[in-house]
What does this fold into?
Amino acid sequence: GENVEQHPSTLSVQEGDSAVIKCTYSDSASNYFPWYKQELGKGPQLIIDIRSNVGEKKDQRIAVTLNKTAKHFSLHITETQPEDSAVYFCAASPGSARQLTFGSGTQLTVLP
Amino acid sequence: GAVVSQHPSWVICKSGTSVKIECRSLDFQATTMFWYRQFPKQSLMLMATSNEGSKATYEQGVEKDKFLINHASLTLSTLTVTSAHPEDSSFYICSATGQGMVAKNIQYFGAGTRLSVL
It folds into this structure.
């Protein structure tokens, strides 16, 4: 089955700096890669996703890049703000099966 | 759009009792719903996948007789934890996906239910 590894497990940045979280996946059949933000005591919220026919996607301060050959994808957050502090999860899916395999999560702390 | 409502948000029950958690898709038809369990500071573990009108498919190691899942309509799935014990205490989260333009192949999550078994 699919295996998703996520790094780093914790990340602290100064407000205004950029944050990068990286994930690798094992199943070459995976073609859908969402990123979720989870605040304490709440469910995950989809913040951005990318499909395998695209190499990069941006949404304001958030971007995701995908390298299919190397089987890795990354989340980039620019101009970080304290409200960006949360746990971020990457995930991978073969699409047709719809099931998501999640990474282990990254606790992002943005220091004011 | 693509809102998933989960209820209750927090439940405390006595050991040996059963607890039902509801998951509703409010603005789309959820052909498939998923139930996850999350321990503190850990990732989401998929428990089961349910398609509307069909029996749920459980992941290896998940007791189907203990975690009863019903997906009787395109907008509602329920998870019943039967004869709950303290080790069942956890954060349970549902998600839903559907065929609509907004929800296609994307999982939208509920806010989660914190279960505490005394």
About this structure: Chain A has a mean pLDDT of 94. Chain A is about 0% helix and 55% strand.
